[in-house]
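Review box. Two proteins, two foldings.
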Amino acid sequence: MEAEAFGSAVLEAFQAATGERLAEWTRTQQALGLQAEVDNLRTVPTPVSGEIPLAFRRSAGQPPPRPLGDLAEDLISAFDEVGRAPAPKPATGTGSAAGGKVTLTLSPSALVSCTADPAWVSRQTATMLTNALLEALAAARASLREAAPAPESPLNDLLSEVFAILGDPGRLRP
C-alpha cells in the first residue's frame, strides 16, 4: 500500500468492519428469533375506552397547564425562532498521535476521518502504525466525551405542555 493511501485505507477498513458487524448482528438476531420481538414492539396497544394513553398522562408533580391562548402564542414564537437558529453541529472528537502525524476524527457513531503524514507512514512498521492509531483513537474518544452536548431547546418544554393538555380531554372541550 502506498503511504499516501494510509488514511483512506483506515477509513475503508472501518466501514467494512462496521458493515460486517451489522451483518453479524442481523444474523444473530434472526438465529435467536428476535425479529418477532421487534415486530411486536411496533404494534400500538388499543387503549381501553375512556383511558388516557400513558404517553399523554400528566405526571403527579406537574403543574396544571397554562391557558391555551398563552401556550399558542409561545408556540408560534418558538417556531419562528427555530427557523432563525443555526443548525446544531454534530459532536465530534479529534485525537492525534506521533506529534500530529496521525489524526482521527470520530462522531458518536462512526469514524469521520483519518489523516496521516505519508512521509512519516512510509518510515513506520505495522506495529508502530497500529500503536499510533490506538493512541489517536484513545485521544479522539476522550475528546468526544468532552464535546459539549447541544443545548436543550425551549421547544421541548412547550411540546411537553401541549402533550399534557392533550392528555386532559376536559381541557379541550369548549
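Next protein.
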Amino acid sequence: MAMPPSPGARAEPFEDERHLIKTPAALRDMSIAIVAQTRDELLLFDDALTPDLYNSSAFVDAVRTLALARSAPCIRILLADPRPSGRMHSRLIELANRLTSRIAIRQLGDDFKHRTDAFLIGDRRAYVRRALATRQEAVADPRGRREARRLGRDFERMWEHSEATVELRRLHL
C-alpha cells in the first residue's frame, strides 16, 4: 500500500520496486507506508530516532495501530545512542512507554557501535535503508524480501548483543 507523496517529495524508481529517496518528505512518506502495510513485525534501527522522521504524528499513529492490532510484542527499536532521543520530546518513545508489552527499545551493544546506517523493516519483506543514519537519502523497497531478510538477520545479531534502555524508561515515568 503506497501513500501519495507529499508536495515536493521525490521517490524515484530505482530498479523494479526499489526507490531512491532524496528528500525528508519522501523518506517519511515511504516509512509510514511500510509501517502501514506491516502486519506482524516491525524492526527499526537508528542512531537516535531522527526527529523529522519518527516524531511525526502520522508515523506514530501507524506504529500505534500496528502495536494495538497484535497481542504479542511485534515492534522492536534498536538505538545506537538513546540519549539524544531522551533529550527531545519523542512521541514514539512516549508510545513505547505506554505500550511496554508491545514495543521494546534497546541500546546497541559496543560490538556494533561501528554501524553508520539506519533502517526500518516491515514483516521482513519491505524496508527503508539509509547508508548514513545522519543523512536523508535512502533506498526503499516495499517488496524487497531478500534485502529485508538480510537486514533482519543483522538486526537479530545486534539485538542479541544489545541492552535495555533504562534511561528512556525513567525519563517518561
